[in-house]
Amino acid sequence: MDARALVDGELSAVERARVAVTDEGFARGDGAFETVGVWDGRPFRLGDHLDRLAVSLTAVDLPAPDIDMLAAEAARLLHGVDGDAALRLYVTASGTRVLTVTEQPRRDPPARLVVRSAPWIRPLGTYGPAGAKTMSYLPNMAATRAARAAGGDDALLVSLEGWVLEGPTFAVLWAADGRLFSPPPDLGIIDSISRRTVIALADEAGVGVVVEPRPLDHLLAADEVMVCSSIRDLLAVRRVDDTPFDGSTPLRDQLSVALRDARRGRR
Length: 267
Prior knowledge:
By secondary structure, this protein is an alpha+beta fold. The protein has helices at about 25-30, 45-60, 65-80, 140-150, 195-205, 215-220, 250-265; strands spanning about 5, 10-15, 30-40, 40-45, 85-90, 95-100, 110-115, 155-160, 165, 170-175, 180, 210, 225-230, 235, 240, 245.
């Protein structure tokens, strides 16, 4: 597919799209963004992504976006796309709107996660940006680089109090005793739409779901550990630090099929 962009409504190829170097999004990482999975040409849960974008901007005292305008621009940008893609939307503090559609990046499953402390993730209500999906992703990317330097594929972030949080660019879930466990968004993690979908599918399948703070030891004693994001499948993790998870993954396998079907409109 031809990667393309809309910058304040101006359509161009991605490589020719331009944003001013004085824009606050570029200069300070000031703004919010969303990444939407496009499956068979259809953006999955676009309305939920646009709503979350508005929540993120409001949380950092920036004006809420014109949702109808962004939805129309997304439809314009996706016109003619009939395969899988990644739709990204950015709204900066300068008011610049950037939408891009590109091929979904090919990423290997994170076979080994390395535990890293995430002091920048704090509970909702402790300060404004808690839980917001902002363009200031440097701490997350630094955590990924540190995990790779330590021999892992990516990081598993934990709070200062020891609660399991999320990955730098993905949600984390785990299975134990036939139930599915997930950290709650009120810990300050991103309210992952993929995670919400997996939880709803688990509920639909009659799987018990527990959404509450759990310490790292609970995850390390789990039967399965899995990650997901808007442009990832529900993927099994095979090692967290030095703890192996090399057995079968029946719950992940079941929910992965359900997630793929939901994304492609087959359920």
